[in-house]
Design brief:
Helix content is 43%, strand content 11%. By secondary structure, the protein is of the alpha/beta class. It has a six-stranded parallel β-sheet with strand order 3-4-5-6-9-10. A two-stranded antiparallel sheet has the order 1-2. It has a two-stranded antiparallel sheet with strand order 7-8. Helix 1 (19-37) runs parallel beside helix 11 (295-312). The two termini are 38 Å apart.
């Protein structure tokens, strides 16, 4: 019997698999992505390379010297002062102290600031406070310093926002009303994204992160694209990172288009093309982890999407490797054995420009 290799499931459960089982899952994962997005599978050589990464007996693996990529973050410094239920350690640090600790103690390539709610709608009402905090930290930090949050269009629906709740209208058969509500919410969201971006630019914003675009569906993604367009028109030198929320855009509306392309069902290749057209400087690709499948299956699936996406655009593609995306197990504190294997694979096989 072949010696079993320790790995994990998509929910983080520790399991042991035989070499043939891992190879079968790699083949199944890349085939699943290929079939869905109509993109090429990993080659036999790439599948073997992925197997070797998964079978490496070391607890932590890495790329070779000279193959390192930059790491952008979406509020990683929050992990220092947030609670354990959010993956943090609960240290008594201010946001400035957390950013500087992340930069100077951890050697971060980039740092970022974000409100604890991490959505743009609530930031609008406290923008002067956030701008002041951003300015003060930017004066003492060295690494590129982003401001980030999620578009999170769901906050614009009742009872939290002004628009009728599309998720309540659709089950009642009020489809047109639901579509109009989403269109209205998207307009509000675009205005707020632009408002916050311009206010922060006045205090020297070094980069803006639209994180998890499309989480509320195609109207959410469209609002972010329109915001990028408007900001780039007035602030062409402002770097904008636009990140997706999954391997395809959910068609909550279904009839929205951007640049003559329907957004609903758009996979990562076309998401990146749309972001590039809008003027984004970096696209953050996301592929959701399936918790009932193994890490080899999930990673093969994710890197298949990534390889096709990096080849499709001229802007950098940074693969999201947080909790439950791009092959990382769905856990608040993802295990280092899986995270490093995911990172190495995405860089070496998927040709990610960053993580």
């Amino acid at each position: 019997m072949s010696e079993k290799i320790p790995t994990r499931m998509g929910d983080g459960e520790r399991v042991c698999m035989t070499p043939s089982e891992i190879k079968d899952d790699i083949q199944a994962g890349t085939a699943e992505a290929s079939n869905r997005a109509k993109i090429p599978e990993l080659t036999a050589e790439e599948q073997l390379q992925l197997y070797d990464i998964m079978a490496d007996p070391s607890r932590i693996v890495s790329v070779k010297p000279g193959e390192e990529v930059i790491v952008t973050d979406d509020g990683c410094s929050m992990s220092f002062y947030s609670g354990q239920d959010g993956g943090g350690v609960g240290a008594p640090l201010s946001r400035m102290q957390a950013v500087l600790t992340y930069e100077r103690a951890c050697g971060a390539d980039t740092t970022s600031l974000g409100n604890s709610d991490y959505s743009y709608k609530p930031v609008k009402s406290i923008i002067n406070i956030e701008a002041n905090e951003y300015y003060n930290i930017s004066q003492v930090s060295t690494a590129p310093f982003f401001y980030g949050a999620q578009p999170n269009m769901g906050l614009y629906f009742q009872p939290d926002g002004p628009c009728p709740n599309a998720a309540e209208l659709m089950p009642l058969g009020k489809i047109e009303e639901a579509k109009k509500s989403q269109e209205q919410a998207a307009d509000y969201l675009t205005d707020d994204l632009v408002f916050v971006g311009k206010k922060l630019a006045k205090v020297g914003l070094e980069g803006l992160n639209f994180d998890t675009c499309g989480s509320a569906g195609d109207a959410d993604f469209l609002a972010a694209l329109r915001a990028v367009e408007k900001l780039k028109k007035d602030l062409p030198d402002l770097p904008i990172l636009m990140g997706g929320s999954g391997e395809f855009i959910i068609g909550m509306h279904g009839d929205l288009n951007y640049n003559n392309q329907r957004l609903a069902g758009m996979y990562t290749c076309d998401q990146a093309k749309a972001a590039e057209t809008a003027g984004a400087d970096i696209f953050g690709m996301a592929v959701n982890t399936v918790t009932t499948e193994s890490v080899p299956w999930n990673l093969a699936r994710a890197v298949t999407y990534l390889k096709a996406t990096t080849a499709a655009v001229n802007i950098p593609v940074h693969a999201n490797v947080g909790m439950g995306v791009c092959g990382v197990p769905m856990m608040e504190q993802p295990p280092i054995d899986s995270v490093t294997r995911v990172s190495k694979t995405l860089v070496q096989i998927g040709k990610a420009d960053g993580l």
